[in-house]
Design a protein that fits this description.
Blueprint: H1 4-26, H2 29-36, E1 39-41, E2 44-45, H3 51-81, H4 89-114, H5 151-167, H6 173-196, H7 202-220, H8 225-228, H9 234-252, H10 274-290
Antiparallel strand pairs: 1-2
Helix pairs in contact: 1-7, 3-4, 3-5, 4-5, 4-7, 5-6, 5-7, 6-7, 9-10
Length: about 290
């Protein structure tokens, strides 16, 4: 499928990723220079002990983690209840796969566990006892939960990219600008928090943003987001909520889990509007009760 915007985003993301790599590999000291801007001296960073900064950092990390877990558990629940969500299974799968692959597997599962780059706060330059490691170099300065790359920034960037990708066709041009600016501000806030707390270098944060964008682009077509995201409407979400609640009540009463919206083999899966879906829920479950 020819999609000029998708192609331009691919080119832009790859170009930006290569630019980040080239700059920080060519000028490794740039990481230390930027980090010194956030260093207060005596082993302390500017945001150390700042209740607002720590609260914002924890809110982003915990909130996004809980949100991802909720999406993942919802998908498992729908699978168990044999529900095909009216809001589009591809949309929810897109969100889950992005969090699993980006912040989960690539950043925390591989990079942070294997690269061995010490965090800024642990370096001799900032009151610690570890040595600085340039970007992309494997080191023995950290054993686990290391600096490269940033898990929190990857979470935030993934949330922004997924949200914009799913909501884009539902937004007016003005709201698209607002959404883009808000997403960039939220990602930038996460980056500043992690650098200001002495937890990451600038290259760690930018690498996480680039990886999150690449994962989103790679899974966009895999999950058929272009076809699925028009289904993501308030009416469809209401239908899914009602279908899930009704199916759970019947499951707890010992009845076989079924697909309240779209039963197997009825040929209606792609043709029901949310209001028709709700009517279908009642008809199917009433029929099941009579049997």
């Amino acid at each position: 499928m020819n999609d000029p915007l998708f192609t331009r985003l691919h080119i832009l993301t790859l170009t930006a990723t290569l630019a980040v790599i080239c700059v920080f590999v060519t000028f490794p000291g740039l990481d230390l220079t930027i980090t010194r801007l956030f260093y207060a001296g005596a082993g302390q960073f500017l945001l150390d002990g700042n209740a607002l900064a720590i609260g914002l950092n924890d809110t982003l990390r915990i909130g996004l983690t809980v949100g991802f877990v909720a999406v993942f558990l919802t998908l498992l629940l729908w699978r168990f209840l044999r529900i095909t969500p009216a809001s589009g299974i591809g949309n929810w799968s897109f969100a889950a796969v992005n969090f699993l692959l980006g912040p989960g597997l690539i950043v925390n599962g591989i990079l942070k566990a294997r690269v061995g780059r010490a965090r800024p706060a642990h370096l001799a330059e900032f009151g610690g006892d570890k040595h600085f490691t340039p970007m992309l170099e494997i080191s023995d300065q950290c054993a686990r939960n290391c600096s490269f790359s940033s898990g929190e920034v990857a979470q935030t960037a993934t949330f922004v990219f997924v949200a914009l990708a799913l909501l884009w066709p539902h937004l007016s041009p003005r709201k698209r600008w607002i959404g883009g600016i808000a997403g960039a501000a939220l990602t930038g806030l996460s980056m500043v928090l992690r650098i200001g707390l002495g937890r990451h270098f600038m290259s760690d944060a930018l690498t996480s943003v680039a990886l999150s964008a690449l994962v989103a682009l790679a899974t966009y077509r895999l999950c058929k987001v272009a076809q699925e995201r028009p289904k993501l409407t308030p009416a469809a979400l209401k239908c899914d909520l009602k279908a899930t609640g009704t199916a759970l009540r019947h499951a707890f009463h010992g009845r076989r889990p079924c697909d309240p919206c779209f039963g197997p083999g009825d040929g209606k899966a792609d043709n029901l509007a949310p209001r028709d879906c709700e009517r279908n829920i009642v008809e199917r479950l009433d029929s099941a009760e009579r049997r």
